[in-house]
TrEMBL record:
A GO cellular component entry from the record: membrane
Coiled coil segments of this chain: none
Membrane topology type: Multi-pass membrane protein
Name of the protein described by the UniProt record: Major facilitator superfamily (MFS) profile domain-containing protein
Domain of life (superkingdom): Eukaryota
Length: 638
């Protein structure tokens, strides 16, 4: 049984209200790591963690006043000075004499009423996450169209022949947008964001998405449909990498995870709504001179949310950080003022973004190749590893095998075409409904815990679904258990591996590599989406549904182990405080989690008395927790 004596804990004296975090290492260390590269990584991220911590009270006030003067914000000088003091140490706002009681009440309320945010913030997150509905709808409508267009274009597979050329062609057509996203679309994100901003990138991506969705419905051969769907990736890629980052930059830390995961919630909504379109258009008759109007309307309907997005996105405020990168500080302040309740909160965030950008520019001079920094700097490499694991598993957990091919799977299981489309709608509806609990739990229960529960449940439900194909088709249980297994899988996927990967990747990387890191993460998930979508038809023909579902169940077991060992928790920390979490060496984190799992097994399975392990992150979330407790006590006293 491991005890605290098994570890070497780097002592950190208590942090009082005015003490800096600079230079502290807050993790349990099994082996010291003082190599030059490790020290350099700490120095790199120390500059980005909180540059204000090195300034005295007097220096900070002078710097804030100079900032206001040089950026045409002189009328807000006093407010910016207050904001700078709060940004220096968010936990100390109760002790700052410069603040009024009203100022303290507002800051206290951030912790006691974390969901009390301006309507503009919610409008921004919900509307921009509507961009995800385009991708979700495409998965669903091509699912339904698979029942119709292969026969019209001469690529309908013949049953009982194993993996055939026709099955590979269907997989290629279905997976074309994912291929484009993985090799081209996602890599346009960084230059588009720098040139056009977050809103501009989303607008351009929405235009591409709308046009190509309509184009799909006008095609007259499978190669033509393949080309149209490939170009759809130019719309899906940039928006899927931009929207989560945009939401993360605009959202307060305490509810950042819930707001960023709205991207996945609306993906689930798009899948559900796509199945509605499939069912609505399934029996549309062909007019004179048109063949396959039903599947053409299915594919074209995916452009509806893109059109709504394009029409509304410029009513949202632009990312304050992008304005400041362009030197437009007054516009950045106005943007923040729409996203926060008071001038004080906006000034605090404005000044903090400014000093981080300055530190980022200094670091960039020493890091000219940001892509290589994802792998050469240990802190960034750990974020890349964790994000890549989650993005890979979002595809290999098996969800898109069902999202793209559930209608074919149900038909293969004995359903009629109409029943298969209706059953697929049930999958989409459950996927959407069960994404809801994650909104309330992702910032409290945590990203990691949701994943560790999700993966085993998905493995069990996939095995249940696969085994159901051995039930004789003549019995009602055959179709009932197949549908039940797929529905239970959706219920397990939606609160865990569904919303977490995009949320995690949007927050895991430090500022100076965030855009390129998010581009890599999203490119990975789209590339593996391509692999899954391409191969599943052939696998169904060659391995049968039993083998396919068992294959994905095995990957879910792998996902559980990989998450346990290599994915740190990121909940309730500011984007900058995460640097301390990812400063823990990978071997240290993996060894700690293995020991913790052993203790958990001894305590809850063997019912033995075990000692407590020292915390891996001694002060994880300390700022938020201390502030919350103090604010709660003060509120109760009042």
């Amino acid at each position: 049984m491991p005890s605290s004596g098994d570890y070497q804990t780097r002592e950190t004296p208590p942090i009082d209200e005015k003490e800096s975090f600079e230079g502290r290492e807050s993790y349990v260390e099994l082996r010291p790591s003082d190599s030059p590269s490790h020290t350099s990584a700490r120095d790199f991220n120390a500059k980005l963690e909180n540059p204000l911590s090195r300034l005295s009270h007097k220096q900070l006030l002078a710097h804030a006043a100079e900032f206001a003067r040089t950026h045409e914000l002189s009328e807000h000088t006093e407010t910016i000075q207050k904001g700078a003091l709060i940004a220096q140490n968010p936990a100390a706002f109760e002790t700052l004499p410069e603040l009024t009681e009203e100022d303290r009440r507002v800051l206290r309320r951030e912790y006691t009423h974390k969901w009390d945010q301006p309507k503009t913030l919610y409008y921004l997150v919900i509307l921009c996450s509507l961009a995800a509905a385009v991708g979700g709808m495409d998965e669903a409508v091509i699912n339904g169209a698979n029942l119709f267009f292969p026969a019209q274009f001469g690529i309908e597979p013949r049953p009982g022949r194993g993996a055939t050329r026709e099955q590979w062609l269907i997989g290629l057509v279905n997976s074309a947008p994912s291929l484009c996203c993985g090799i081209l679309g996602c890599w346009l994100t960084d230059p588009l964001n720098r040139l056009l901003g977050r809103r501009g990138t989303i607008f351009v991506a929405g235009i591409f998405s709308f046009v190509t969705c309509i184009w799909q419905g006008l095609t007259n051969s499978w190669p033509h449909l393949l080309v149209a769907r490939f170009f759809l990736g130019l719309g899906l890629g940039p928006k899927s990498a931009t929207v989560p980052v945009y939401s993360a930059e605009c959202a307060p830390p305490l509810i950042r995870g819930a707001l960023v995961m709205m991207f996945q919630t609306w993906t689930a909504f798009g899948i559900m709504f796509g199945y509605v379109m499939n069912f609505a258009f399934r029996n549309i008759p062909d007019p004179v001179g048109v063949r396959g109007l039903n599947w053409r309307l299915m594919l074209g309907s995916a452009g509806i949310p893109a059109l709504i997005l394009v029409a509304q996105v410029y009513f949202c405020p632009e990312s304050p950080r992008w304005y400041m990168m362009k030197g437009h500080y007054m516009q950045a302040f106005r943007s923040l003022r729409r996203l926060r309740h008071t001038d004080l909160q906006a000034a605090r965030d404005l000044y903090y973004i400014h000093v981080l950008l300055e530190a980022e520019r200094e670091v960039n001079k020493r890091a000219p190749n940001r892509f290589l920094e994802l792998f050469t700097v240990p802190r960034n490499r750990r974020a890349t590893l964790a994000s890549s694991i989650l993005m890979f598993m979002q595809q290999f957990c098996g969800v898109n095998a069902i999202a793209y091919y559930s209608s074919n799977i149900f038909v293969q299981g004995g359903f009629s075409q109409t029943a298969a489309l209706l059953a697929s709608f049930g999958f989409g509806a459950i996927n959407f409904v069960f994404a809801g609990p994650a909104v309330w739990t992702i910032d409290t229960f945590g990203r990691r815990n949701l994943l560790l529960i999700s993966f085993p449940l998905m493995a069990v439900t996939l095995l249940m679904t696969g085994f159901a194909f051995w039930i004789p088709e003549s019995t009602p249980a055959h179709v009932a258990v197949i549908a039940l297994g797929i529905y239970l899988f959706a219920a397990a996927y939606s609160p865990g591996e569904g919303p977490v990967p995009f949320t995690y990747a949007a927050e895991a990387f430090p500022l100076y590599v965030r855009d390129i890191g998010m581009s890599l993460a999203v490119a990975l998930t789209w590339f593996f989406n391509f692999v899954i979508t391409l191969t599943v038809p052939a696998l169904l023909g060659s391995w049968t549904p039993q083998g396919v579902f068992a294959w994905f169940a095995t990957w879910n077991i792998f996902g559980f182990v990989a998450t346990l060992l290599f994915v740190p928790e990121t909940k309730a920390l500011s984007l900058e405080e995460l640097d301390r979490v990812f400063s823990v060496p990978t071997s240290t984190h993996a060894a700690y989690q293995l020991r913790a799992t052993g203790l958990y097994f001894q305590k809850h399975v063997l019912r033995q008395k075990v000692g407590k392990m020292p915390p891996l992150y001694e002060r994880e979330g300390a700022i938020g927790k201390k502030s919350y407790k103090r604010a709660s006590v003060t509120a109760e006293a009042a």
